[in-house]
Input
Amino acid sequence: MEMQDRAVIVTGGASGIGRATALLLAREGARVFVGDIDAAGGQRVAAQAATEGLNLEFLPLDLTQIASIGAFAATVHQRVEQVDGLVNGAGWDRIQPFLDNPPEMWDQLIEINLLGAIRLTRAVLSPMVAAQAGKIVNISSDAGRVGSTGETVYAAAKGGLIAFTKSLARELARYRINVNCVCPGPTDTPLFEAQPERMRQALTRAIPFRRIAQPEEIAEAVMFFLSRRSDYITGQVLSVSGGLTMVG
Output
């Protein structure tokens, strides 16, 4: 198993891409700590993992609260000396024209999608640096690469996460820590299902494969960046979008 005996944090692991990632890593032998604000969803994932005999634990995490981030990191470090892998997978969005956005929505988008990842990364980084080992995977979005109508501030936050990935990769290479980024396109998650049928059909038609991604397909890309197969890869951004956002 590729992730045997490695300790990995997955934020946003209560549903969608985060859930698929957490379960895949646990099935590959990792000890997984799921952090999420959705306690009911997190407990469901932990219960499913238990039925499969997997080493997965849910811990509450609110990425908009600095105290919650600190408490989460402290609890993880009580369980393990260092984290081998960090997946910043938590995200939140609301489709709405920028002109209609209330300012408090901007704050929430940036707190969850960008600052939360930055703060949690810093909270778990020192033991990684001391060990000169570790892998960080940030789950951004193709919205952060090419923009997306109705998601302007979300795209700005996800674009910031891409820039954070690249800059942190440069800083941490001397410590043999890899930092990479996965950018999903439209994916079969609760957020996608909440969109109007017309929008979902239009997005599906625009994808060269003529279907949206399954969360497990994004999870495979995340695991690649966490595995030993990517030991010589850092600072990279991988779009997993069925060809939707091909660039020359």
Summary: The chain has one domain: 7-240.
